[in-house]
Every structure is written in structure tokens, then in C-alpha cells.
Amino acid sequence: MLENHAKLMQFFSSTDEVVGRKKLQKMIYILKKCEIPFEERYQFHFYGPYSEELTLRVEEMCNLGFISETKEEKKNYYQYRYKLTDNGKAFLEHYENNMPPLHEHIATMNEKSSRFLELVSTMLFFEHLPKEEVKEKVYTVKSTQNYTDEDLENGWEFIEKLRTIH
Amino acid sequence: MAYRDEKLSEEKVFKDPVHRYVHVRDRVIWDLIGTAEFQRLRRIKQLGTSYLTFHGAEHSRFNHSLGVYEIVRRIIENFKDRPNWDDEERLLCLSAALLHDLGHGPFSHSFEKVFKLDHEDFTQAILLGDTEVNQVLRRVEEGFPEKVADVINKTYSNKLVVSLISSQIDADRMDYLQRDAYFTGVSYGHFDMERILRVMRPMEDQVVVKESGMHAVEDYIMSRYQMYWQVYFHPVTRSAEVILTKILHRAKELYESDYTFKLEPVHFLSFFEGKPNLSEYLALDEAVTLYYFQTWMQEEDPVLSDLCHRFVNRKLFKYIEFNPNSQMNEWMELYKLFQKAGLNPDYYLVVDSSSDLPYDFYRPGEEGERLPIHLLQPNQELKELSRLSDIVESISGKKRTDHKLYIPLDRLQEMSNRSKTKKRIMEILYG
């Protein structure tokens, strides 16, 4: 029961908090691409890979009291913070933890901006293509973000770094 | 005349219960409709198992695909000569609209979940592989199949084109809401599409709606909301979906344990092995699937045979509301009690959550996680819909989720009234 929810809770239990819905979306996608067995399905959207399943599961976990969601008003937008609750921790105790350790992955991603994670997840979306074509694709679908060659280089390095974490 | 510009000598029309007529004048569109891969969509129901709840819901993805094409055709008629619209993209839009659901398999949702497949991958494979559809598209120009694939994959450079087929107010949703409402017979799902089409405007990278059309859009959002709870997420349909999923799991499990089926499930073998190729995927439609379910009713395995009997004869599981947080201990006790009662809990005690059927509500995309609906104000500024509409704001702020526990109540009732196990199960379930 709720095995996929439990996997997501393992994720939240590996960090103090996650700040931002967009960041959360991209982090889970990037982890999936690092062979972490999350089941949420993604599609490409205006802002890169996005999973409606993930959004719904997070809402369910909030409604069940397993995760707390705090809404903060910023200048032109709202920002959301997510944290595992005590109820969530108690629920997790019923499950065997079959997930690899995620602390280091998450800490590495948490240091980065959501704009950068949007770039990295977009690169990963096209990673079946040769690197030059990935670059072309990123410049095409993310023309308004004005990513530079240097950003892409940093992106590749970041992906490599994440994939070497065990 | 180039193939891409060729017109039929006379316009063809399909009579359609939702849009009255679907008009086809382009040779390319006519040829695409005639391909084997597109005709296959006649054998895939648009609403999967909903026909077991709403007996009229037998319409197919073929009907819906024609409907989406027709809506995009009408939008493009309205966009002609407007700023930001490039009529060179017309055929691309029409083709993508027609073909957007090409990769759907039988009872897509359950199949994809059990066999870990994604219909979008198969849509891409049909468009780009050795298929009749690909041959037609390639005649238009080299690279045209890739363009259509990019639009459907939402990775095409012109985001305005993408947003016609896929955004929070797109032709896909506008068709399925009305079509599903028509065929299920519910009174929700209706909205003034003609009005919305009249007030849609092409912008550089998205379709927007003039502010004066806000009330028509509100109606559309309400339709989405109501159709979700009344039709798409109907608890009885969910029960059928649960059983279907369990049938597929059981058949796969039996195959993996070297069980000998009375009739070798040749159409399923590649699915069980996790790697159906394109032709194997296309060969398995709903008619074939239901044929297997009929034959599996005679199988020796009591679980598979019972589940198939339930699906084919509509002997569905019953449900109760369930809270995984406060009822975790009860769940664990039930699991053991079901084992004791000889009912395999992995198949007969199922929690189904709203997220198991991802149907998207309208979301304002407050943190740029996805693009919202934008209203075009008289001063040419764009404003997100829920900032101007109280109705939409109140709906999009609601996070309604639920969990239900599905059980074969008939099997429990068959147990002796003297059984302590039965007594305790009933106590937990019904108090």
C-alpha cells in the first residue's frame, strides 16, 4: 500500500526541507535519471520535465499529514516549503527502506538554483541524443532562459558528479 | 502541386455528435486517417473501463482524435492573418492534433502501470518508425515526421503550436470534456467552446484568451473539475481499473513462475518480458485483450480466473473510504486476516489513491512548474486566470484527494457467519 508515497517520503526524510515546487519536480526527475527508482511519470512542459503524478502524490501526503507545506509570499510569486512530519516518520517505519541513500544527491541539488536544475533536467530529457544535439535542443526549447555554453558545461559536470555518488 | 498543398477535389465530412461535422480538405490528413495505425484507434476506448459505470462510454480514441483535429482546424481558421500566427505551421498543427494519441494502447492506464510502458514513447515510435503514418508524413517533406513528433512531445521550437495541442486550455481537453460528457450522458462537461475559440489569441509562445472571454473559460474549468469527480474518478470505474490491473499483474506473475496457460498468451509474451516492439504493441488492442480475459476465466489458477470473471461479468469489488494515516494498524490487521481467510491480500485488499489516476486539475503554476491560462487584458498585459477569477481561484486552491479500500465483499459474505476471521474483518470494515 502506498509504496510510491513511501519512496517519496524516503526522499523527504533525507533532507531538512525542500524549497520550491519547481525545484522538487526537477530534483525527483534528476534522481530518476540517476537510476533512483521513483515511479512518477514525467512529460516535457513549458518549464521542462514535469510530473502531474508527483504533484498529486505530494498533495495527498500533505492532506494525510505526512508532509507539511508552508506557503510564503515573495515579491511576484508564492513559494512553498516541504518537510516530513512526525506522522510521516511514523508511517515510514512500517516500510522497508529499499532506496539507496539520497542525502548526498539531495544536498548537492539543494545548493543549486531551480533555474539550473531546470537546465539539467532538460539536458537529461534529451540525453539519448549526441551532446551537440542536446545543446541545440536546449537552446531551442529554452530560448527565453538564455542559457550559455558555460551553463551547459556546468550542467554536464553536475550530472557526472551526481552519477558518481553512491 | 506539392503533396503538402494538395486538396481533395471535394471536401470530406465526418458526421460527429459533438462538433456536428469534422471537415477534411487536405489530402495529407485524409491519407493519415486511412493508415492502419490511425484506424487501430477505433479499437481503443477513449475512457477505458468507464463503460462499466456509464454504459454509453464506448467511444474510441478514433472519435476523439478526429475531434481534436476539428477544433484545431477551427482555431487556425480564426488565427488566419492575426499577428504571431504563421500559416506555414497549419499542416503541422493539423497533423499533430490528429495523431497526438496514436500510441495509446488497450486500457492504457493499467497496461502502462503494470508493464512500465509509456504510450508517449509509442506515439514517437509510430511517427518515426517503419509505419504507414510515417510514410504519409515523409511524403510531405523530409523531417516532417520529426516535426510532428516534436510538437506532440512538446519540444517543438514554436511553443504557440505546442500550446494549441497541449496546454491547460487546449484542443485535446476541449474535445474530451465535451465528448466524454456526451457519451457518458452526464450533464457536466458542457461549456461554450465557440465563445472560447472566438476569444483565443495567438501570442509569441502561447495561446491566450481575451479577458472578455473569462466567464466562458470559468465554465470550462468548472467542467474539468466536475468531470473529474463525477466521471473520470468515479469509484466504480476505479474498482474496474483495480481489477484490470490485478489481472495483468497476476497473468505476469504466473508467466514468471512458469505456469502453463491453457492457451499460450502469445499477444502478451513480449509485455510479460517487458519489451514489446512496435508491431507487438500495435497488435494488442482491446478486442484482443478482452478475448484473453474470456479465455483466462477457464484457467486453473483460481485468482486469475476469478478476477477475469469479475471483469467480464462486472462483479466488481466494493469499496470503503480509507485513511492510510489513521488506519495503518487496521490495514496491517486486515492483511493478516485476509491471508487467514484464504484471500490473497495482494489481489483482494487494494488501496486506491486519487494519484493513481493522474488527471490534471487546473493549476495556476505559482512557481513556474507549468504554464497557466493567461488572460489578455485590454492594455495588452497578461494575467493568470485565477488572479482575475474568484471562481477559478476557489477551485484551484482546493486540494481534494482521497483513498479507497477495495474488497471482494461477496467472497467475505460467503464465509460462514461463525467464522471469527469474518467477524473481525467485517468489524474493521464496517464498524
Could you characterize the architecture of this molecule?
The complex is a heterodimer of chains A (166) and B (431). Chain A has one domain. Chain A has 166 residues and is of the alpha+beta class. Chain A is 54% helix and 13% strand. In chain A, α1 (3-13) packs across α4, α2 runs parallel beside α6 and α6 (114-125) crosses α8. The mean pLDDT of chain A is 92. Chain B is of the alpha+beta class and 431 residues long. Chain B folds into 2 domains: 3-232, Hypothetical protein af1432 (Orthogonal Bundle), CATH 1.10.3210; 235-356 and 402-430, Growth Hormone, Chain: A. Chain B contains 23 helices and 9 strands. Chain B is globular and about 80 Å long. The chains are: A alpha+beta (166), B alpha+beta (431). Chain A: This is YwgA family protein. Chain B: InterPro entries: dGTPase-like, HD/PDEase_dom, HD_assoc_2, HD_domain. Chain B: GO terms for molecular function: dGTPase activity. Chain B: Residues 61-177 form the HD domain.
Mean pLDDT of chain B: 94
Task: Quote the average pLDDT of chain A.
Answer: 92
Count helical runs of chain B. Answer: 23
CATH topology of the largest domain in chain B, by name, is Hypothetical protein af1432
Sheet with most strands of chain B = 4 strands, mixed
Note the main sheet of chain A. 3 strands, antiparallel
User: Helix proportion of residues of chain A, in percent?
Assistant: 40-55%
Largest interface: A-B, 42 and 34 residues
* Major sheet: arrangement of strands of chain B: 3-4-7-8
**Can you count the beta strands of chain B?**
9
Strand fraction of chain B: 5-15%
Order of strands in the sheet with most strands of chain A: 1-5-4
The domain count of chain B comes to 2
Quaternary structure type = heterodimer
What's the SSE pattern of chain A? HEHEEHEEHHHHH
Structural class of chain B: alpha+beta
Distance between the termini of chain B: 75 Å
Count of the domains of chain A:
1
Protein name (chain A): YwgA family protein
Organism (chain A): Halobacillus salinus
Pfam families (chain B): HD, HD_assoc_2
GO molecular function (chain B): dGTPase activity
